[in-house]
Amino acid sequence: MPIRLLIVDDSALVRKLLTEMLGKDRDIEIVGTAADPFAARERIKQLNPDVITLDVEMPRMDGITFLENLMRLRPMPVVMVSSLTQHGADITLRALELGAIDFVPKPKVDVAGSLTNYAEELIAKVKMAAGARVNPRATAPRPVAMQVDERRSADAVLPAVSGRRVLRTTDRIIAIGASTGGTEAIREVLDALPADAPAIVISQHIPAAFSKPFAERVNRSSQMSVCEAQDGQYILPGHVYIAPGDRHLIVERDGARYRCRLSDGPHVNRHRPSVDVMFRSVAQNVGPNAVGVILTGMGDDGARGLKEMLEAGAGTIAQDEASSVVWGMPGAAHKLGAAQHVMPLHRIPAQILALSNEAGASRAVG
């Protein structure tokens, strides 16, 4: 059966463009449109859609208030359509907290031309949302075909090396990768870690305009100090470094210390930042002093890099299917044999600390 989609946006032009682009895919049926949340509420009752695309800023009732009511009364997959601005980022991150599955940016200029270029992304995210898990008590999601770009691997940014000896130090690094559903999964993990936890580096698939507001938002709730990573920045215990939304984050060894390096290299697995690139750098430069964690996300970015970390002696963790919004990335890592531990999200913080302590104990014995 095709995915039944309801489009909610106050702009008649955007409604028309979304209808034309998404309606071309035979797996998607546009069952209706609505210009505001009040009309959307009636359309949902009448049409029973599988997925909604929801504008952030609308008259009569804003998208966030509507989403909050929707998730309380009738939870269902929602893809937000938001502007790439500071205000748009804050609202969109709030929408993800409330349960929206994902978002697509709404360009500020040349709306028709820019949105047309987004057709492939829009279609992929609507299909993904249809099979995503809205809450942990939902039934198992429909399988979703994941599109993988095999044209570039992490080799395009950071060549693989063999036989490199990684010096053991007292510093440990936790590397976390995520995509769809990852902003909330990351926040939950960081909120459960103590202020003196080992340093953490994170690559989350997110637009450039969103990564700094995301870091600031997580910093307000975490006991650790969270920031958007800067090139050359030393990596310190008790601190979290989130990759900027348009640059790869690479962990570089500097004597007995580590630094963040940012790269404008090509997209890897369709993404920049790429989790594979970050994981490879950690495997090469941190090795057994690291722990790798792959969380919810669409696609398979990070699976190969996590395998490289495991082969370098690092502890590895993947989020399980039941607690993932989309079990693409962690599922691919599990299939590849890259994850030593596959577990629910709420158990991952304790496992991170346990693996970090094991690494520290082995160094003390050695």
UniProtKB/TrEMBL annotation:
PROSITE patterns: CHEB (PS50122), RESPONSE_REGULATORY (PS50110). Its main location: cytoplasm. It is found in: Cytoplasm. It catalyses: [protein]-L-glutamate 5-O-methyl ester + H2O = L-glutamyl-[protein] + methanol + H(+); L-glutaminyl-[protein] + H2O = L-glutamyl-[protein] + NH4(+). The active site is at S179, H205, D301. The keyword Cell cycle does not apply. Its EC number is 3.1.1.61, 3.5.1.44. The modification 4-aspartylphosphate is found at D55. Phosphorylated by CheA. Phosphorylation of the N-terminal regulatory domain activates the methylesterase activity. Keywords: Chemotaxis, Cytoplasm, Hydrolase, Phosphoprotein. It is an enzyme of class 3 (hydrolase). The keyword Cytoplasm applies. Residues 167-359 form the CheB-type methylesterase domain. One of its GO terms (molecular function) is protein-glutamate methylesterase activity. Belongs to the CheB family. Involved in chemotaxis. Part of a chemotaxis signal transduction system that modulates chemotaxis in response to various stimuli. Catalyzes the demethylation of specific methylglutamate residues introduced into the chemoreceptors (methyl-accepting chemotaxis proteins or MCP) by CheR. Also mediates the irreversible deamidation of specific glutamine residues to glutamic acid. PANTHER family: PROTEIN-GLUTAMATE METHYLESTERASE/PROTEIN-GLUTAMINE GLUTAMINASE, PROTEIN-GLUTAMATE METHYLESTERASE_PROTEIN-GLUTAMINE GLUTAMINASE. This is Protein-glutamate methylesterase/protein-glutamine glutaminase. The gene is cheB.
